[in-house]
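Reminder to self: tokens first, then the designed residues, so the page reads top to bottom the way the pipeline ran.
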């Protein structure tokens, strides 16, 4: 992993850089300098695959003013100078509606979240920070996300997935004079759902966690509706467990599908057809979003298509890579037409799954925790 080295005096505006329509709801990282310090007391920020009960992070409240969160960032330091950042296997980002929900989030810090995702390391930019008052080497991780959400107050938590064995620990920094406090100042809370540290599931920290949260422009950004499936059909493959309700929430209650033997090598291994209902055909942008994993067969490719209600043919939107752990993906179509919506408001999404490599039939399973599509004005 390539890590840039950034001197704090030259970093002005670095975190804030984004699309022209971006707006910042929380910036407790800037200005980067001597006001960015190691968190006193409980400062753990890590999901431990090898010591799961110790998995912890610090959460802080933020008033989200838009309906789409597009980026978060976190400043952290490490337990030893040579800690291998390349050993990080993912970044867990979660938003809860209460501290009580967060402290019961499980050892992967995801349960009970309003929105959660595990972001692949290849999508995360990490830069080294100098000039701070961190106890160890300090870094800034900038993480892309795509959360459709209702405006309101939430609790943000971020943590890398990193084994303690042969790696070490990561600690969250805090800011004593942040540029933009997320909500109420100095009221951050540590959470350790597995109680490995013996301090309970929540620990008062009372600082400003070094987080940033960016939204797409504030307001509703032309958002029309989130559409969830009202029916599904597995036309290739078979259902192992789960049902329609499993696809309608982000809660690890998944629709699990498995592969049948497919004699035609040009056919996908699994095909999932979904239907939903749109309140209007007058939209110009659609995002189809999934949260899924393939624990033993991943990574696999998911090809996503929308049905043209006039020609009855499916139009490919793009592909999503599904890994061995839960992660979120999306494909987008920008088009000023109502051809994807029937006269009765019906819409059809097709997801076709294929493996990148030979996989034993007994191992070929995919877990779909959530599938939905968001529509926007053109």
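Designed residues (378 positions):
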């Amino acid at each position: 992993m390539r890590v840039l080295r950034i001197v704090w005096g030259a970093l002005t505006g670095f975190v804030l850089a984004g699309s022209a329509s971006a707006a910042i709801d929380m910036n407790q990282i800037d200005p980067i300098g001597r006001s960015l310090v190691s968190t006193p007391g409980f400062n753990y920020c890590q999901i431990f695959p090898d010591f799961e009960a110790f998995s912890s992070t610090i959460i802080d409240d933020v008033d989200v003013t838009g309906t789409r969160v597009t980026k978060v960032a976190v400043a952290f330091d490490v337990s030893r100078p040579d800690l291998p950042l390349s050993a990080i296997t993912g970044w867990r980002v979660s938003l809860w509606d209460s501290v009580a929900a967060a402290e019961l989030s499980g050892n992967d810090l995801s349960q009970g979240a309003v929105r959660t995702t595990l972001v692949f390391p290849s999508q995360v930019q990490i830069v080294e920070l100098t000039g701070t008052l961190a106890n160890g080497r300090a870094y800034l991780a900038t993480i892309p996300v795509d959360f459709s959400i209702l405006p309101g107050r939430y609790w943000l938590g971020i943590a890398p997935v990193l084994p303690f064995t042969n790696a070490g620990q990561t600690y969250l920094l805090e800011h004593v004079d942040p540029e933009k406090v997320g909500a109420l100042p100095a009221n951050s809370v540590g959470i350790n759902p597995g109680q490995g540290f013996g301090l309970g599931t929540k620990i008062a920290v009372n600082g400003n966690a070094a987080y940033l949260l960016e939204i797409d422009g504030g307001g509703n950004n032309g958002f029309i509706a989130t559409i969830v499936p009202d029916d599904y059909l597995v036309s290739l493959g078979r259902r192992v467990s789960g049902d329609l309700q499993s696809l309608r929430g982000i809660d690890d209650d998944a629709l699990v599908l498995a592969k049948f033997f497919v004699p035609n090598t040009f056919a996908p291994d699994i095909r999932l057809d979904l239907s939903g209902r749109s309140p209007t055909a007058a939209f110009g942008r659609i995002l189809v979003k999934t949260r899924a994993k393939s624990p033993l067969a991943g990574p696999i490719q998911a090809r996503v298509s929308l049905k043209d209600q006039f020609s009855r043919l499916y139009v490919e939107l793009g592909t999503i890579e599904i890994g061995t752990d839960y992660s979120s993906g999306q494909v987008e179509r920008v088009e000023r037409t109502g051809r994807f919506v029937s006269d009765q408001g019906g819409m059809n999404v097709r997801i076709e799954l294929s493996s990148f490599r030979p996989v034993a039939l007994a191992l070929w399973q995919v877990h779909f925790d959530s599938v939905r599509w968001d529509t926007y004005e053109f």
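Residues 99-102 form the longest helix (4 residues).
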